[in-house]
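Hey, resending since the last one bounced:
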Amino acid sequence: MTTNISWQDQDAKGNTLSDDQRIRMSRLRQRNRMFKQKDGAESLQTALGEINRMGSALGVSKSTRETGAVIYRRAREEDLIIGRTIEALAAGALYAALRMGGYPQTLKKVQSVSRSPSQRKVYRAYTLLQREFGLEIRPESPSQYISQIRSELRVPLVYETEAKDLIEAIDPVKLSGHNPTISAAAALYAAGITHPELPLLRQIDIADAADCQEVSVRNSYFDFVAASPRTQMDREELIAAARSEQAGDTGHISKKRLPGPYRTSEVLHPGVEIHQFTDDGGSEHIPDRLLRPSEK
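The structure tokens again:
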């Protein structure tokens, strides 16, 4: 039966059951519980409730939750639940539904609202569902995550517009194989460098908003800076800025940049310090790192 038998030994009118009726109801409860466990109805009910709860926490639409429920039902019919926890498989089914619908939600975000203690188990459940059912997963684009990260940072919309322009300007080959969330965070950081009127964002703030490591943002934004079509500094100005830094001058350095060999770091005072320079054939070199010892 789909309903539960009340534990109270009373009939519909509230009258106390006789001894024979009480024994009969006790046996019916036991049989009902045994058949539910055998059929897996309780586990299915738990999983569907878990998918609905996670979808509500993430603000997912009802249609996407239903897609996740259908995926879980198919996994149950194929006995894929054996050897796996209900929580991990339910989270993997919801994440697969999000990927199929093209909604920008990271695996870490889905795992954070699930009851599964391990992100690895959720990822394994997702890859299993994708492999067994041949799900049509749309390729992710960094542009999908820019709006979400910008909202977490609470910065003006112009950062998002500039970051999307940088993603469109960069060679798609350089983005292939990279985590789209990290690429989106790097594009937002590069937007503050390439746009002359925008203040630079801190790498640590962007990394926290994107749920990634700060070093990942630092190692990924160079290509976006190089792809910017804006007017940038020339070689002589960069060298002069580096020499003035060596001499102890902490005056303002222009934010404008040249693509290719010129790379920048965090803002440690008004302006931008240059920490790396790859020689393109000239005889003068900019020191590899100009960060203050306290900031290294």
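The first strand starts at residue 262 and ends at 263.

Sorry for the duplicate.
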